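Input protein
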Amino acid sequence: MYSRQIERSVNTAAFLGLAEIRVKQGQLVEATDLLKRLNRLSPVAFENLLASARVLSQAGHPVEAEEFLKLRMQAVPWDDEARLELARVEIAVNRQRDLATENLQKVVSSRQAPYDIRTQAAREQAKSGVTPPGSTGSREMDLLSNRIRMTPDAADAPYFFAARTVASEQNADPNVRVRLLLGAIAERPDDSAVRRLLFLAALESRQYYVALAANRRAGGVGATDVETAAGMAEAHRQIGQPAEAVPLFGLAASLEKDTGRRQALEERQKQARAASDRLLENERRRPVMRADVDQPNAVRRRLP
C-alpha cells in the first residue's frame, strides 16, 4: 500500500510509514534511502528532516539519525526541537558530549523555544548528567535539570506543570501525588495523560470523589480498559452509588482476559447489584415527610 502511494506522489506519511516498516524488518539501508528520497522530493526543503531522524532514532539507530539532524540544524539553526533531538542522539552515540551539553543548554535557556521543548531539554540534562553549573534563569528548569533538588513543595508552584508531574512520579505517597497532579491539571485541564495519573493516584489514596471528577471531565480518561472501568466502579461503590457501579463492573469483567480476575469482577458486580436493590427497597420503605399523614407506601423497617 505504502509503495503504491509513494509511486503516485510525494506522500510524506507513506514514506515515513514504509521507512518504519523497513527498519523493523532490519532493512536499515533501504529505510535510510527512502528517507533521503523523501527529503529530495519534498516540495518544502528541509521540512521532513526531523521526522525522518525520529523514525531512525526511535528505532534505536541514533548514528543514522544524526545525519538528518545535522542537515536540519544547518538549514534551520533556530529549530530548538531539532537541536534537542540532535543532543539526544549525540548523547546516545556517546560522542561530542560537549556539543550535546551546549545544545541542551541553548534550548533550556531559550526564550523562544516552546515550554514543552525547554522542559524536555531540562529533563534530558538531568537524565544524562550533562548539567552545566549555574542557573538557567528559570526556577522550574533548575528543578527539572537537577540544579535544585526536586521536592514536592519546590515543585508545587504556580505554572510549574512539568515540575509537578515529575515530582509526582518521584513520590510514593498517593496523597502527595494527588496534590501535585491537581495543581498540574489546573494548568492544563484537558491533558488526558495527567488526568489518568490523577485518577489512579486518587483511587490509591481513597479520594473517590476526586477520582470520579478526574475521569468525568470531557477529554479525560474513559472506561475503555479493565483498570479504569474497575476503578470507576469501585469509586462509585465506595461513595454509596452501587447502581452506577453495576454496569462498570460488568464492563470491566467483559474486558478482563484472566478467568480468575473476571470471576472476581463478576462477583463484585453481583454485590453491587444487591446493594443497589437494597437501597431501592429501603427507599420504598421509608416514610415520606409531607403535610398529609397518610403514606403512599407501607412504612416498614429499614433493611440492614
Remarks:
- The CA atoms of residues 25 and 250 lie 41 Å apart.
- The chain has a mean pLDDT of 89.
- The two ends are 64 Å apart (CA to CA).
